[in-house]
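OP here, attaching both records as promised.
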Amino acid sequence: MIAAALSFEQARDIAGGKFGAVDAPCPLCGPDRRSPTNRRRKTLRLWCTDPAFISYHCARCGEQGFRVMLNKTLSALRSADLIGFDRDWVWLT
């Protein structure tokens, strides 16, 4: 069974702090493979173009998306109910 999507911290750790394209074993579908070779197969590609933004796609399970490191200021404003945000939008409340 495939777990939830990657968090920003997981994606950053997998990319190892490198910029550009990085290939790695997919932590979402790799552990379900029977063969140790297939568990380690590098099917997940991560693109890190900015320290706060990582996009990814797995050629095996099709998981794809992007993750953004939220600024502490944004998180503080959200906890004070001054702004709201979801995957696509940021708005004032």
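Record two, same layout:
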Amino acid sequence: MNSAQEHFLREQVAPLFAKQWPETFFTEKLKVKPLAVGIAPKIAESGAAPELLSRARVFLNWYTSRPCYLRALAEGKDRVDLEGKTTKTTEEHRKFAADKFIAEMKRRGHIKGDVHGNR
């Protein structure tokens, strides 16, 4: 995804999702909650406006691959559904997110060496 696409999703699409589901999506970068497993079909079934539904797949892919999202999931924060109800994050999902977060931080040059600080 290029920076223009990310900018569009952050500035144009995220506010639409936050307005539709204010307990689930947020426009503030660091205010993020992991999403409930299976939320994409719930969005499709929600009867939301066509501009939301047509962008849901790309938006969810971007939203859930952001470092702040991965970090929240890796920390074991509760997952949230479209109504704001929470469920626990599994240890398997927490570990998977932690690995993805570390890989992304390495890719961006924020971490050198292994996760234990060895270079």
